[in-house]
């Protein structure tokens, strides 16, 4: 019996933050520990160049995400762990798949529109083609399950559409990939608006942040007078309470909620306890990270061997696709 394949990846735009960890990497881990799945996790450096990037930092950022993966407990014995650009078949397949979807479909994606608004002077072909490259990442390995945040659902829909079209037109056997949702996947932003995001300054806590840094970041999170006749459902206080629930449990949240309706919440205490709770979760990850960081030879070996394993699958898929499509 062949195992179902899982593919996921993170853009190489710096280290991982708490939102990436709880929203995606915990899902990667869960699936990698399930013997029913063959898991492939990559750092997406070709996707990183679709928005403005610093050439002096690209390699370092890529390496940092690999270190974060390993620190979080991803195990090269159980999963293929590597870097996208080391397997050139990703771009090869992306070109082929780009013939199966319209420019208009790409232009209407919410993710594309957001990036156009953020970087109006950098609306490149690579940016427009981002979802096609992502479809290629997944289809190259015939993966059927993709652990990613809910914001990636429109991209998965594109991947499914392309898979269907390829199968109908050429008789390929691409599965239609589904999203795998993790439990505590929504990690609220420290700014009080939306979720933690690498592109929103002051919104996130990095996996490598020290206790002091976490305290400092939390101290900037917006609050209110600490009491009222209704617990806020939106904004800074609501986000803080969500974080309390995630890291200290729902009982703790309930205690703060009754204080809010009664004598009042002391936010300095809430924030300091929350910082400790978050740091306790990160400490073992940071310790693991140090070990790998001090052993770059091992990390290089993991990346290289991962690329070799991925290449074997990738080459086979390209061979099949070319045959089905009538290439020479
Ligand atoms: N677009 C994804 C994100 O921003 C990153 C990504 C690129 C990805 N290719 C992928 C995720 C393939 C899953 C599968 O999170």
From TrEMBL:
This is Tryptophan--tRNA ligase. Coiled coil: none annotated. Keywords: Aminoacyl-tRNA synthetase, ATP-binding, Ligase, Nucleotide-binding, Protein biosynthesis. It is an enzyme of class 6 (ligase). One of its GO terms (molecular function) is tryptophan-tRNA ligase activity. Signal peptide: none annotated. GO terms for biological process: tryptophanyl-tRNA aminoacylation. The keyword ATP-binding applies. Belongs to the class-I aminoacyl-tRNA synthetase family. Its EC number is 6.1.1.2. InterPro entries: aa-tRNA-synth_Ic (IPR002305), Rossmann-like_a/b/a_fold (IPR014729), Trp-tRNA-ligase (IPR002306), Trp-tRNA_synthetase (IPR050203). GO terms for cellular component: cytosol. It comes from Candidatus Woesebacteria bacterium RIFOXYD1_FULL_43_18.
